[in-house]
Amino acid sequence: MDDVSHQSLFECVDRLRDEMNDFVVGNNASVPRVPFAHLTSLAFHRNFVSTNRPCIITGLVDGWKAYRVWDEDYLVDKVGEMEISVEMTPNGRADAVVESKQLTGMEGPVFLLPHTERMLFKDYVHLIKSRHYCQPDSEEKQKHCEDISFGDQIVTYISNQNSSMTDLDEFGGALLPDIDSTIPFAEEAFGTKPDAINFWMGPEEAVTSLHKDPYENIYGVIRGKKIFTLYHPSSLPYLYERNVHCGKFCLNEDRASFSVNPVVDSTPHEYSCQQENKYSPEATVRPWLMVDPTSPDYNRFPLLKKASSLTIAVNEGEALYLPSMWFHHVQQRGSPRTCNQCVSVNLWYDMAFDVKYCYYTLIESINSLLTPNNNTSEEENNINDDDNNSNDDNSDNSN
């Protein structure tokens, strides 16, 4: 594509961003808080779902039994004997792009999946309370303590997105009576019941990288706080989506350090960490966003300055309606009632494949024209920098 058509496309994208700010996102850089008591399915659909706008719902989660009773003792008593999946990383960044050959053993950026460990929920709670809580008084207990002992620097996170609240291999429905898993106004507005209900429990070191989901999302915070940085789907051309090779953290035998192994197309779902740790040119490639909105590198990614973001805190007892396909980066703060972990539950509803979906695919098609070969070459960054400099008046929209 020649420079003139490239610049013309970016001018169209900039105009779209400005109109989204005026009519959808809002230039006051805030998300409305809506009382649950005043929220009908018609009002919710008209004001937020059909317009693809997020909102914070108050008075919903703080009416759940979970909000009243969930603490470490209650959860251990209720589901302590259940075996669940725990994600582990050395840095709290699972499902994220890392550019460190020293860490990954691979050239260039790598999308890294977490190591997954199966353990009893009560052992997870003991583990996060103290890495060395065991005082064995028998060989059997000594062996058990060794089995659940991990290095102090390992970041753990219960974040399995397989409808873990209902999955028989996770919590198996044991905690469902504590939440309102049927939210009438949402089901009527979305026209469907939840496709998945997920349980999340992790420390502030666990951060979710910028991504999007093809679901309508009701995200309820029960303990602690979630901090979301949001970008409207039209922001894609500013967020540097690139194809990157995939790898996976694998816990080493010392149970305190990790290696990184490539993920290839033939890799089974239950990925083995025993294969040789070396870079593979056949490693699976997937698209992911390169930018970190909490630590932006404007020298490498100058177009990020143009993207309009919303940064919001979802407090304990509140819920976020996150529309489908919105990009979101998530941080969290823990609660002393749950071992300084943040605990939340989200309900995913299938998105409607309607005119909004057609709009998303158009944005993706435009983005593919703006990023030839889907790489991060120096030449491409120079072009982006030129485009950025030509629109200085619009470069201060990021929060």
Can you walk through the features of this model?
With 399 residues, the chain is of the alpha+beta class. The chain has helices spanning 3-25, 41-49, 65-69, 72-79, 101-104, 121-129, 139-147, 184-190, 355-370, 378-389, and strands spanning 33-35, 55-58, 83-89, 93-94, 96-98, 110-113, 115-120, 155-157, 196-202, 207-211, 215-223, 225-231, 241-251, 258-262, 285-289, 309-314, 319-322, 327-333, 342-350. The chain has a six-stranded mixed sheet with strand order 1-2-17-11-19-9. A five-stranded mixed sheet has the order 4-10-18-12-16, with no helix packed on it. Helix 2 links the parallel strand 1 and strand 2. Helix 2 (41-49) packs across helix 8. The longest helix has 23 residues, at 3-25. It starts with a helix and ends in a 10-residue tail after the last helix.
Spell out the key features of this protein.
single chain; 399 residues; alpha+beta; five-stranded mixed sheet; 26% helix
